[in-house]
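User: Please fill in residues for this 139-position structure.
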């Protein structure tokens, strides 16, 4: 085992050789007895100890975090089901617009005769405010 490989394993697996891959342990123990290998292992053990310490969290901060999580859960559960969201006035606006357009089209089809008539042109002009342009040409 080379010193570079020893460093790679120490950085990847930490300062405890017992956690290293079995095939590398015997050679690692030989290098660990040297001055540089021992210093590297001590450095990695200190780093492992630093990572192993749980963070200190103030009780007030923990309470705020727990409250925020509970509020998020409550907000998600308070959301109405999909079928109730569809029946809100905002979601009915496109449906109402489509229904009004369809009714207007049906009325317009019934109001216009098959042949051109002055009364029909006047009715369409009044409804659509088409004073200059009619359905059958310019007036």
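Assistant: Residues filled in for all 139 positions:
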């Amino acid at each position: 085992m080379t010193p570079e490989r020893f460093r790679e394993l120490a950085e990847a697996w930490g300062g405890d050789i017992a956690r290293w891959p079995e095939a590398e342990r015997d050679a690692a123990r030989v290098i660990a007895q040297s001055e540089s290998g021992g210093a590297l292992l001590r450095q990695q053990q200190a780093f492992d100890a630093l990572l192993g310490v749980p963070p200190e969290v103030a009780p007030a901060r923990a309470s705020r975090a727990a409250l925020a999580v509970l509020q998020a859960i409550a907000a998600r559960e308070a959301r109405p089901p999909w079928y109730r969201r569809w029946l809100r006035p905002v979601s009915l606006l496109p449906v109402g617009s489509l229904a009004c357009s369809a009714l207007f089209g049906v009325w317009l089809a019934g109001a216009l005769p098959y042949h051109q008539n002055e009364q029909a042109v006047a009715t369409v002009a009044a409804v659509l405010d088409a004073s200059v342009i009619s359905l059958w040409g310019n007036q």
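For context: Residues 61 and 67 are 10 Å apart (CA to CA).
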